[in-house]
Amino acid sequence: MKKPVYMDYAATTPVDPVVAEEMCKYLTIDGVFGNPASRTHAYGWQAEAAVEGARRHVANLIHADPREIVWTSGATESDNLAIKGAIPGRENPHIVTSVIEHKAVLDTCTWLEKQGVSVTWLAPGSDGRIGVEQVEKSLRDNTVLVSLMMVNNELGCQTDIASIGAALRDRGVLFHVDAAQAAGKTEVDVSSAPVDLLSLSAHKVYGPKGVGALYVRRSPDVRIESQIHGGGHERGMRSGTLPTHQIVGMGKAFELASEQLEQEKQMLEGIRSRFLAGLDSLEGVTLNGSDSHRVPGIVNLSFAGVDAESLMLGLRNLAVSSGSACSSATIEPSFVLKGIGLDDEQAHRALRFSFGRFSTTEEIDFAATQIVDVVSRLRSVR
Ligand SMILES: *Cc1c(COP(=O)(O)O)cnc(C)c1O
């Protein structure tokens, strides 16, 4: 069976072959398999050197100091560590986030709310963006942290983290940014944007699943409480034996991303334009989220008069995402689409198409043709 065209890069990316090849050198008896924390022999030293090399590559992509990178199991853990870790020792803490964050942030904040933390849930504009004035208005004397994503995983729209960060820095409020969808897709620069904590994931950037990092600013010094206790690895912020092969994979993936960022952005702008041009003959197609402040790789579209479930059934040759979460019996429309003001019906008509490094013009042309055919057919039988 021929596999469907992969158009779900926002869900995960394939590991780049160069990355996979590198990772294999850190597993077996003839490779560097030692425990990076072993200080007494060469096996440990070599593994530690590999981990530190990877740390430099990850730091480099976001213009950080390597000492500001804490390894985690992925952006979910990084989000948990950043948000929960900022709370202890604070009196009557208040945090601010938005209703269109990733579940890793939403559920963490909901859990904290149950523990007695006050949470302000900001609603974005119809373009999916949170404005700096909106954030400023939500601040209180006891606000500890603001957590906002840089690029939304369903819409691709981008938040102005530099301006928001500047407003928070003046008031001494910590700023956490989930940059899982931003790193390697657009410039992320913590040397110019006043961000204190920033979550990263390897598998959205052609690295392996199960590894990520949290950037923790050193100047001014940001202190967070560890959530996983043990051997005191990662300067006490995250215990657990470091998975050398995973970390090396993330390092290589981020090195490649850094080298290819501009070229890849241009390539994806081309893919995006070509895809949208291919749908030109269809009436009633709306783009959800901002069309000016966004990354090129994510396109969220609603098709008037056609629900996403029927459309996906017709598009078996394409691997896309409906953004709807199927919870046991009912299909819940995407909370992100509802968060930008779409009603249930509009939200049920949306599909997310996401492109990446291995997308080709042939695939995009094929996809556009399929979509035009299936939408037209579904509309004609209505
Ligand atoms: C994928 C993603 C995550 C979760 O990352 P994992 O490494 O899979 O835990 C968090 N936030 C955003 C915005 C994401 O896209």
Descriptive overview:
- With 382 residues, the protein is of the alpha/beta class.
- The chain is globular.
- The protein has helices spanning 17-23, 42-61, 75-85, 103-114, 132-138, 161-171, 244-278, 308-314, 335-339, 344-347, 361-380, and strands spanning 5-6, 69-72, 94-98, 118-122, 143-149, 174-178, 197-201, 212-216, 285-287, 298-303, 318-319, 325-327, 330-332, 350-354.
- The protein contains eleven helices and 14 strands.
- The mean pLDDT is 95.
- α3 (75-85) runs parallel beside α4.
- Pyridoxal-5'-phosphate binds at residues 74-76, 102, 104, 149, 153, 178, 180-181, 201, 203-204, 212.
**CATH uppermost class of the largest domain:** Alpha Beta
How big a fraction of the residues is strand? 15-25%
In the CATH hierarchy, the third-tier topology of the largest domain is known as Aspartate Aminotransferase, domain 2
Query: If you compute it from the alpha carbons, what radius of gyration comes out, rounded to the nearest whole angstrom?
Result: 21 Å
Number of helices: 11
In short:
With 382 residues, the protein is α/β, with parallel strands linked by helices.
Topology, pairings included?
Layout: E1 5-6, H1 17-23, H2 42-61, E2 69-72, H3 75-85, E3 94-98, H4 103-114, E4 118-122, H5 132-138, E5 143-149, H6 161-171, E6 174-178, E7 197-201, E8 212-216, H7 244-278, E9 285-287, E10 298-303, H8 308-314, E11 318-319, E12 325-327, E13 330-332, H9 335-339, H10 344-347, E14 350-354, H11 361-380
Parallel strand pairs: 1-11, 3-4, 3-5, 5-6, 6-7
Antiparallel strand pairs: 2-8, 7-8, 9-10, 10-14, 12-13
Helix pairs in contact: 1-7, 2-7, 3-4, 7-11
